[in-house]
Amino acid sequence: LQGYASEMDNPALVHLIPSALHNKKEILFGNLPEIYEFHNRQIFLKEIENCIENPELLARCFLKRKEDLQIYEKYCQNKPRSEALWRQCGDSIFFQECQRKLDHKLSLDAYLLKPVQRITKYQLLLKEMLKCSKNSEGTAELEEALATVLDIIKSANDSMHQIAITGYEGDVSELGKLLMQGSFNVWTDHKKGHNKVKDLARFKPMQRHLFLYTKMLLFCKKREENTDGHEKTASYSFKNSLKMSTVGITENVKGDNKKFEIWYNGREEVYIIQASSVELKNTWISEIRKVLT
């Protein structure tokens, strides 16, 4: 924050800042200042240090700070936008100059990854603690704390995918909480429509990436794009959506225990969805059930 973010306001360096970066500080750094503030107050650190004598109290620190730790979710949500901007401007003289002054071996992007790495380190800490605390005092709380951190990581991961949805006319943030996302084989069967279409649809599945929100289920097609010499970035082009208030579900499809059905309008449209495993299918069904009830 001092060596890069503050330098963006340094009049002596302003001429080195690439035009693509103008007024984009918040995109590049996300809510890093908020994460810094949280740790800089050292309240969380002191609470954890107090557990050195009483490790069974560690879980409470995490449960107490559940809300605070959601700043990481916000950071991860912005990460794809930040990375795209970095790919555009990362090799500019401005960043080279900042790095030289700091005498850092690594460039800024390595440091921008730190918060993402930090939140995943917390889960490892809690998992290790659980290994050492079989059925002792505080085990239940540790399990709850681990679930809390895993939930933040899952939300962060899901929202990083959600940012890449293209072609959806509405506002994704109005669809309620994103509960699940993942790739499936999908067959469709429309009551209306030509028989021939119906027959074709039976055999060849479509690859669809599903996003389940409390109000809507989105069907998207995943596209991998090569960004000039960098790793592939996925985007999800919107195909269709079903309002959760009008869908029904059939949990078992004859002949394949990985398949389930989602139907619309009294089976006028039926979507046969095949998961990659029975476990995954069951997780999705239980989430959909919760929404429907």
UniProtKB/TrEMBL annotation:
Signal peptide: none
InterPro entries xrefs: DBL_dom_sf, DH_dom, GDS_CDC24_CS, PH-like_dom_sf, PH_domain, RhoGEF_Guanine_NuclExch_SF, SOS1_NGEF_PH
Domain DH: 1-159
GO BP term (any one): intracellular signal transduction
Keyword Nuclease: no
Gene Ontology annotations for the cellular component aspect, listed alphabetically: cytoplasm
Keyword check for Phosphoprotein: yes
Keywords assigned: Guanine-nucleotide releasing factor, Phosphoprotein
GO molecular function: guanyl-nucleotide exchange factor activity
The PH domain, residue ranges: 171-293
SMART domains named among the record's database cross-references: PH, RhoGEF
Name recorded for this polypeptide: Guanine nucleotide exchange factor DBS
Naturally occurring in which organism (per UniProt): Apaloderma vittatum (Bar-tailed trogon)
